[in-house]
Amino acid sequence: MTLELKIEDLQVQFESLQKAAEDLDRRLALQVDSVVSEERENETWTSPLENRFTTREQNLLYSYTVDAVGLLHYLVRQQLPDLEKDLPTLASILKLKSRNGKIKQAYSIGLKTMNLSEEDVNALCTFLITCYYEAQYLPQEARNESTEGMNHIIDVVIKNQAMQRSFKIAVLAVEKGKTLKGANVATDV
Fold first, then answer.
1. Which of 72, 124, 133, 162 has the fewest CB atoms lying closer than 10 Å?
2. Cα–Cα dist 96/185, whole Å
3. 78 plus 161 within the same structural domain
4. Residues 46 and 117 in one domain
5. Quick check: 187 pLDDT over 60?
6. What is the span of the domain harbouring residue 15?
7. Which InterPro entries does the entry mention (predicted)?
8. Of the ranges 113-122, 141-150, 164-173, which one carries the lowest mean pLDDT score?
9. pLDDT at position 184, please?
C-alpha cells in the first residue's frame, strides 16, 4: 500500500469520525435541553411544596392566581364567542388549543395581553393544583395589599425566581384586568 492510499484512507476515517462527533454533539445538545427543561419543570412542581406560607399569604397568592387564570379564560372566550360553550374552563382551552388554530391564536393573544408566558401559566396552574385544598379565595375587597405590597410578599415567601416572576405578572395582570372586565375577574378554573 502506498503512502498516498494510506493518507486517503486516514482522511476517510477522519471524516467519518468527525461526522460521528458532530452527530454526538447534536444529540448531547438535545439531551442537555431536555434535562434543563425537566429540571425547570421539577422546580416548578417542588417550589410550591417547599415554600411555607401563612394562611393570609397563601390565600392572597391563591386569590390572585385564580383571578389571573380567570382573566385569561375570559379574554380567550371574548375572542371566540362562537366557541364559548366549548370552553367552560381554562383547562378546556389548554386541552383544545393544540387541535384548534383559532383557540391557539386567541390563547396567544390573551397571554400577550396579560404579559404572561406559557411557563407562567404552568407555574400558576401548578400552584393551584398544589395549594387549592388549603387556600380560600379572598374577594378583591378583602385584599388590603397594594401591588407593591404583594410584590414584597412574593419576594419574601417565594424562593423560586420563575415562580416569583409568574406571581408578579399575575398580580399586575389582575390589577390591569379590573378595567378590562370589572372588579371581580374570578371565574371557574
1. 133
2. 22
3. yes
4. no
5. no
6. 1-50
7. DUF4547 (IPR027875)
8. 141-150
9. 42
